[in-house]
Amino acid sequence: MANALERIQSTIAANKIVIFMKGNRNFPQCGFSAATIEIFEQLGAPYETVDILADGEVREQVKIYSNWPTIPQVYIDGKFVGGCDIVRELHETGELQALVKSATASAATVH
Predict the structure, then answer these.
(1) Residue 76 is part of a domain; what is its CATH number?
(2) Cα torsion for 95, 16, 20, 43, to the nearest 10°?
(3) Are 61 and 38 in contact (CB under 8 A)?
(4) What burial class does residue 68 get, using C-beta atoms within 10 Å of its C-beta: 0-12 exposed, 13-18 middle, 19+ buried?
(5) Is residue 35 part of a domain?
(6) How, if at all, do strands 79-82 and 48-51 pair?
(7) Is residue 86 part of a domain?
(8) CA–CA separation, 64 and 53 (whole Å)
(9) In this model, does residue 109 exceed pLDDT 90?
(10) Strand 79-82 vs strand 73-76: parallel, antiparallel, or unpaired?
(11) pLDDT for 60-75, tens place per residue?
(12) What are the C-alpha distances in Å from 62 to residues 40, 94, 100?
């Protein structure tokens, strides 16, 4: 079995948008995770979630990997974007939509 860091890296590499969160898209376990999911649902973009509550190693390692102490954590196109507050701000300015569009457009062109 891969270690937590390898699982984090492979999940980010395999998905254009990944949200490391408490709970999952259908049952967020905290308000910040729920707010982040709500934004991505509004955008209608495909995304993957990772429940850090189900894996204590990933919960700790993702904070080290991103050098960011809180959850949720959003990765788009392999890059760490931020947590709930940053995602909210980017959404309000339209920058998040541009990041998502760029990431999903590049996914559509790769066959």
Answers:
(1) 3.40.30.10
(2) 50
(3) no
(4) middle
(5) yes
(6) unpaired
(7) yes
(8) 16
(9) no
(10) antiparallel
(11) 999 999 999 999 999 9
(12) 20, 27, 21
